[in-house]
Amino acid sequence: MPDRPLLNLPAPEPFTMRGRGGGGASISRPSRDRQRERIDPRFERLSRLIDDPQRILELTGDPASIAPERAIVFEVEGALEDFYAQARALGFEYLGDYEDDFDPSDDFFDEDHPDKILGGRVYLAMPDVQALRELLSLWNRFKTGQRMPNGRGAWRELFSRLIDVRAWGPQDRIPLETVRAFEEELERDPGAPVRFEVELWFHSNEARRAQALDRLTAELAGAGGSLIDHVVVPEIHYDAALVDLPAASVRDLLDNPDVGLARADEVMFLRPQSVARAPASENDGEDGPAAIDAPVFVSNEPVAALLDGLPVENHARLAGRLRVDDPEGLAAIYPVAQREHGTEMASLILHGDLNHGEAPLPRPLYVRPVFQPTGNGERTPYDRLLVDVIHQAVRRIKAGDGDEPAAAPQVVLINLSLADEKRPFARIMSPLGRLLDYLSWRYGVLFLVSAGNITDRLPIDGYATWGDFEDATPEDRERAVFASLNAQKSQRTLLSPAEAMNALTIGRRTRDRRSTAPLRQGASIRSRRTTSPTSFPRWGWASRKSSSPSCFSAAAGRP
């Protein structure tokens, strides 16, 4: 049987990639003598202690020191061809790399545009004692102008482009979004424990992973915390724990990040718990017809799957069209009144836009609930890591769960209309994004992923009051909205897992004459096709009057 594409895409067109860092730009870099002056202090203490096993403990006792079994950060202008291979050959355990931007300095700058931000990469590696000795030897050769050993020439390029080298420290482990999330949790409930994720450095060696978990567990116990969940997915180099920590210990982390988990060498990141939510929707009474014709299928094997909330299976538009797989028995605790998001998405996938009268899908839809009911909507499980929830669900579909066979082996399209509002994309791909990439490749499926929904209000500059905005011309209002969107673009980014490379990420474009707060009579808004001011699609459906289309359709009717 010949291969056929899942989607008919236009023919590719050649283009020229814009360079980062080097890439044709004329970058001024420091001389060897200047690099020695800048970088040598980073290695000075290491050079004094590395040959004395007793004194190496001084290095490990200082979280700011480069030390054995501690992640080292190499900040490099531009990018290196084969750092992975070079690091492994030197005895480093390669931990990863990511793009970054660096402010120009007197040492590194674009000669044609001195104020231009420089592109580069951050490389992460963990050495043992011998690897650190090798690193010091290569650095000494570079700074004294000696020839590098055979096979080590790439290190000369690294040292010449090195903006900084340092230990992975507390400032790396607790990103700004984590600080904000902790502060919000403490303000919301000052006495309650804070639940969050600890991403550990992934080690290929299982014994090292076990040791890291033991040290994390001991650290948690010492701070009065507890381990809730722990998951390892070797295929995406993921080792993480879901933990609870008393409010007082979290305040200590914020006030003094050089203590506790923030200085634990096993820890890569402290992150807010990855949670996808489906807030309760507003019923506007447009429920559509009471009944439709019974389904007629070309096959009873589903090719599309929905990972979402539990739908109302006997709804007039869904009856007989779903294959619901509920291994956790959520139906027993899922009130029918709260089965909103799964019902809406199932209807949207099966019927498309109700306003268009499209024919329903000729196959049933496989549905696996990954949301649970809460007091104010639906959300992913509180006591599990989201990566594990999605991983287990997809494995169950395509490969089976334990002794059970694959639940829907013919599925090739999986809808994931959820997003982690606490995990905006910022250079480093999220574990959930990496997981979707791996699962796409492993099982030959295409994920359709919502780009996320920015729920914060968009501040419109230039208008002191809503009345001033209403009195402006449609053209001026439009310009103001687009200017405000442009000013906020760094904060209104993709939400995990929308940054996945092998998935099809669906943003939102709308043609709408309605605003959420109607303008005064006669003060119309220009109607045009444009990206939504919320940046990304909301969950669920959009009725005839709604401005909230889902990631499956430009405007879909309520089931």
What does this structure look like?
With 559 residues, the chain is an alpha+beta fold. The chain has 14 helices and 23 strands. The strands form 7 sheets. A 6-stranded parallel β-sheet has the order 13-14-12-17-19-21, with helices on one face. The chain starts with 26 loop residues before the first strand and ends in a 28-residue tail after the last strand.
Total helical segments: 14
User: How many strands in all?
Assistant: 23
Percent strand: 15-25%
Distance between the terminal alpha carbons, to the nearest Å? 37 Å
Could you give a short account of the major beta sheet? 6 strands, parallel
- Oligomeric composition of the shown chains: single chain
Task: Give a topology summary.
Elements: E1 27-28, H1 32-49, H2 56-60, E2 72-77, H3 83-90, E3 93-102, E4 109-110, E5 118-126, H4 129-143, H5 154-161, E6 162-167, H6 170-173, H7 176-188, E7 194-200, H8 206-222, E8 226-233, E9 238-245, H9 247-255, E10 267-272, E11 277-279, E12 304-308, E13 322-324, H10 341-351, E14 365-369, E15 372-374, E16 377-379, H11 386-398, E17 413-416, E18 420-424, H12 431-443, E19 446-450, H13 466-471, H14 474-487, E20 495-496, E21 504-506, E22 509-510, E23 530-531
Parallel strand pairs: 12-14, 12-17, 13-14, 17-19, 19-21
Antiparallel strand pairs: 1-4, 2-5, 2-6, 3-5, 7-9, 7-10, 8-9, 11-16, 15-16, 18-20, 22-23
Helix pairs in contact: 1-4, 7-9, 11-12
